[in-house]
């Protein structure tokens, strides 16, 4: 069974069709690159999967069950985590706080009662888990820094750490390498590959095609809101139509 | 038909009076990005200046020009340079709070300058108020009405043309969107914004001077009433079109004219409903107009470049200072409490107890504004709901007061849920406006109703008796201990909430709603929970406050109190439970102390002005000016100590902060 199924999703913004009849699927432990020129509708599709954007038509299934009626925060609790193209961090919080906030959100919905009886604060286990993830991303030395004072590249890593700390089953990574230098970008690619090998399903929106080629099994190419190719990365990148749309018709 | 016409026609000049204010709101929002709650106060300042000048024998024309074209623009310039130019583009909560500070501070400053006596109404600038200039369908139109209509038309045309077709208009709108981008185009965004403030302030001056003769005295209340009606008209125009704002004002005026004509005169419902028309309208508009819902959500593409203010970290202090403060702080606190219980004069015990009751209401602001970053303008209303419920239950149904106060908190929580419903889709400025509307509706309709707010003379909330202990003795001391205990317990639980999952969730939501939903926090749940809980705390505070005073009336819980409360708490420290308690007790003590001053110093206004100054600094010091001063003092003491003892330092425990 596929972990994620995007079924004939269409999204219209007024007269503009941002996504038309988009379908693809992601299996467990599979990394799918969602690529295409700017304005192709990739981030719209991400929004629909995450529950931030309501599709005009079509459906999204997680583990075989439709999740169309679930709001974004419900999907997050089912194991959908994401990072954002335009950075969405909490500027006044420390790096560690980001990871604790994420874990607290996954405790369930009786937060108020738990707070009142004095069990609302992060446990040692949760702090330990946060430290583990920070170490994995190599930002453990930034643990107690306030995020507003960090560089863009480090903020991307904080976002990624925040997404991973709750052990999601599906990761939606929206241009995780933008703003990173070459070394950091390589490290990000290696990390995504390892996560995939551990069974995490990943949808990766990325302009760095080398990164996509290194980390993804499959690529879905979008142009003008439609899927124009879907297959193994090597095959797709060699496709003429893809070249025409994405690389400007070279060859 | 002619009857309808005769009711509707007077509504037109009436609508024009707040059309000028509505246009001002739209203009200042368009050209400065600030929803100017202080517009009425600015109009009031120039009206007073005009009246004073005329009283001292200056010609009406000269006085008018000085007030409108010299004083008002200067005031606008000062407001821009001293207050708003220091607030970064994206910080909408800070803009709202600063505008509220001005709304409280400007009239206070006028009262301090001119003394507590209200200026008598000045003669009209253009036509005389007593001459009937013409008759439309038999309805007389007086000079002031005619002048208002003509000036409104002129202003709409001139400003619309300026904003839509000139380079200056374009620059003003650009300065609101992104001052940085405008600067990159080689335009001084500072100058453009200052100019915008001067223009909108001159418009406020014009409205103030023109409308002053309509009333018996020049009083801030009249301008606030105009402001409130104008907000609805500005909302119909989506804060976007000057012409629509003017037309909407006239429309509202006509509807109100018709209502006055046809409604049975005299009943609370007819007078209440009449003044509530604009509020109902505003509430509906906020719910259905998507443009309004997004109000105050800045989309400056360059916003990320402005470095956010350096977050306030726990100050480090030396071990010696840390230990001495840890011993001294509780010592002072215990000494204070023991003093109040033993030797402090009874009148002062009353003041401290009132402050404690107030601090519960302030605690509710800590929850909404401090943790969730939303400016709610109906917290005094929640306190009123609590107080009136307690009063009704205790007086009419014989319920013990303590139980009645708890029931009051529960009913207030229900009111909080109702308040959260329209607010579910709102945040930022739109949420502030929707809560303000609810407060106004409560003032106009709910609280004057006898079975809610009691008779006009007020409703009795008795002092409680707990078993054999009666708190109704002549001395307030036993009651002080009871209130102190309740504040400590409430503070304890609020602190747990704010430091637990709820507080962290609110913190996340305040800083990035998108990411907090992406992590699994429900935005609606967050809002409903925080509104209900904070309303409950405010309601409990209201009940205790009522029990202290023993009689409460609707005048004790008006929307104006809500505004003042926000300003006070923000000044003292809105991020901590201790801040709320300090704000409550501090405000009560200061007000009482100021009462010893001779009346000509306008003590109440001095206190209001003092706190309003702190609101201007919210952007730079979201932790509160008083808290900021304390940290500074700690640092100085630390430096002095470090010289004497040595540089051993420990970070202050995060516990001490929250």
Can you describe this structure?
The complex is a heterodimer of chains A (251) and B (658). Helices cover 38% and strands 24% of the residues of chain A. Chain A has helices at residues 42-50, 72-77, 95-105, 111-116, 124-137, 152-164, 182-197, 209-215, 233-238, 240-246; strands at 4-13, 16-26, 31-35, 57-62, 65-66, 80-82, 170-174, 201-205, 218-223, 226-232. Chain A has a six-stranded mixed β-sheet, sandwiched between helices. In chain A, strands 2-1-4-5 form a four-stranded antiparallel β-sheet, with helices on one face. In chain A, helix 3 (95-105) packs across helix 5, helix 3 (95-105) packs parallel to helix 6 and helix 5 (124-137) packs across helix 6 (152-164). The radius of gyration of chain A is 18 Å and the shape is globular. Chain B has two domains: 2-295, ABC transporter involved in vitamin B12 uptake, BtuC (Orthogonal Bundle); 324-630, ABC transporter involved in vitamin B12 uptake, BtuC (Orthogonal Bundle). In chain B, the strands form five sheets. A two-stranded antiparallel sheet of chain B has the order 1-4. In chain B, a hairpin with a 2-residue loop joins strand 2 and strand 3 (139-142). Chain B is globular and about 75 Å long.
């Amino acid at each position: 069974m596929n972990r994620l199924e995007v079924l004939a999703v269409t999204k219209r913004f007024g007269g503009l069709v941002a996504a038309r009849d988009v379908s693809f699927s992601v299996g467990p432990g599979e990394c799918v690159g969602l690529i295409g020129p700017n304005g192709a509708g990739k981030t719209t599709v991400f929004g629909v999967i995450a529950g931030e954007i309501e599709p005009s038509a079509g459906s999204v299934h997680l583990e075989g069950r439709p999740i169309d009626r679930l709001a974004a925060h419900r999907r997050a609790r089912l194991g959908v985590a994401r990072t954002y193209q335009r950075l969405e961090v909490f500027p006044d919080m420390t790096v560690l706080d980001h990871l604790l906030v994420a874990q607290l959100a996954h405790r369930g919905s009786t937060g108020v009662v738990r707070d009142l009886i004095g069990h609302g604060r992060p446990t040692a286990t949760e702090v330990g888990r946060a430290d583990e993830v920070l170490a994995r991303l190599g930002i453990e030395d930034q643990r107690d820094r306030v995020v507003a004072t960090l560089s863009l590249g480090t903020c991307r890593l904080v976002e990624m750490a925040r997404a991973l700390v709750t052990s999601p089953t599906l990761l939606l990574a929206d241009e995780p390498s933008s703003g990173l230098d070459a070394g950091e970008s390589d490290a990000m690619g290696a990390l995504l590959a390892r996560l995939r090998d551990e069974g995490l399903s990943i949808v990766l929106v990325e302009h760095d095609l080398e990164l996509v080629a290194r980390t993804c099994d499959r690529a879905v190419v979008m142009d003008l809101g439609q899927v124009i190719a879907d297959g193994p990365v090597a095959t797709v990148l060699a496709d003429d139509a893809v070249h025409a749309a994405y690389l400007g018709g070279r060859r | 038909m002619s009857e309808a016409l005769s009711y509707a026609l007077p509504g037109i000049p009436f609508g024009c009076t707040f059309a000028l204010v509505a246009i001002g709101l739209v203009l200042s929002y368009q050209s400065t990005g600030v929803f100017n709650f202080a517009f009425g106060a600015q109009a009031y300042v120039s009206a007073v200046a005009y009246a004073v000048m005329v009283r001292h024998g200056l010609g009406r024309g000269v006085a008018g020009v000085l007030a409108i074209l010299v004083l008002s623009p200067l005031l606008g310039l000062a407001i821009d340079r001293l207050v708003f130019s220091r607030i970064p583009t994206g910080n909408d909560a800070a803009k709202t709070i600063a505008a509220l500070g001005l709304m409280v501070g400007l009239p206070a400053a006028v009262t301090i300058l001119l003394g507590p006596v209200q200026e008598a109404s000045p003669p009209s600038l253009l036509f005389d108020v007593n001459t009937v200039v013409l008759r439309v369908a038999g309805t007389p139109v007086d000079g002031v009405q005619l002048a208002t209509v003509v000036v409104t038309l002129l202003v709409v045309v001139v400003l619309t043309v300026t904003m839509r077709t000139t380079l200056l208009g374009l620059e003003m709108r650009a300065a609101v969107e992104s001052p940085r981008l405008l600067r990159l185009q080689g335009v001084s965004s500072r100058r453009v914004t200052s100019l915008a403030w001067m223009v909108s302030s001159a418009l406020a001056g014009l409205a103030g001077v023109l409308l002053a003769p309509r009333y018996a005295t020049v009083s801030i209340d009249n301008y606030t009433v105009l402001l409130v009606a104008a907000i609805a008209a500005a909302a119909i125009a989506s804060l976007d079109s000057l012409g629509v704002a003017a037309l909407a004002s006239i429309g509202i005026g006509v509807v109100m004219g018709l209502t006055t004509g046809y409604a049975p005169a005299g009943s609370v419902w007819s007078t209440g409903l009449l003044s509530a028309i604009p509020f109902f309208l505003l509430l509906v508009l906020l719910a259905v107009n998507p443009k309004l819902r997004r109000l105050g959500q800045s989309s400056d593409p360059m916003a990320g470049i402005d470095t956010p203010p350096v977050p306030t970290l726990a100050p480090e202090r030396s071990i010696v200072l840390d230990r001495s403060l840890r011993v001294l702080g509780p010592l002072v606190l215990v000494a204070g409490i023991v003093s109040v219980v033993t030797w402090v004069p009874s009148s002062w015990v009353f003041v401290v107890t009132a402050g404690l009751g107030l601090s519960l209401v302030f605690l509710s602001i800590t929850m909404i504004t401090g943790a969730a970053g939303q400016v709610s303008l109906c917290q005094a209303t929640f306190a009123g709901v609590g107080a009136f419920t307690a009063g009704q239950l205790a007086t009419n149904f014989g319920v013990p007061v303590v139980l009645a106060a708890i029931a009051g908190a529960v009913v207030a929580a229900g009111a909080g849920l109702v308040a959260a419903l329209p607010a579910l889709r709102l945040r930022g400025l739109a949420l502030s406006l929707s809560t303000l509307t609810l407060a106004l509706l409560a003032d106009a309709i709910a609280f004057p109703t006898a079975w809610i707010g009691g008779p006009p003379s007020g409703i009795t909330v008795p002092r409680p008796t707990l078993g054999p202990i009666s708190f109704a003795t002549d001395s307030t001391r036993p009651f002080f201990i009871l209130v102190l205990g309740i504040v400590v317990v409430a503070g304890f639980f609020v602190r747990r909430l704010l430091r637990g999952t709820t507080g962290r969730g609110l913190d996340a939501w305040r800083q990035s709603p998108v990411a907090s939903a992406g992590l699994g926090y429900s935005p609606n749940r967050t809002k409903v929970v925080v509104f209900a809980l904070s309303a409950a705390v405010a309601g409990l505070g209201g009940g205790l406050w009522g029990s202290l005073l023993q009689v409460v009336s609707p005048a004790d819980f008006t929307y104006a109190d809500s505004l003042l409360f926000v300003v006070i708490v923000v000044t003292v420290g809105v991020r901590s439970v201790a801040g709320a308690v300090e704000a409550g007790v501090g405000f009560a003590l200061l007000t009482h102390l100021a009462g010893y001053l001779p009346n000509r110093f306008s003590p109440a206004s001095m206190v209001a002005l003092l706190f309003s100054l702190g609101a201007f600094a919210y952007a730079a010091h979201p932790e509160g000016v008083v808290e900021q001063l304390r940290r500074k003092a700690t640092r100085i003491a630390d430096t002095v100590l470090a010289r004497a003892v040595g540089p051993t330092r420990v970070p202050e425990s995060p516990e001490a902060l929250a």
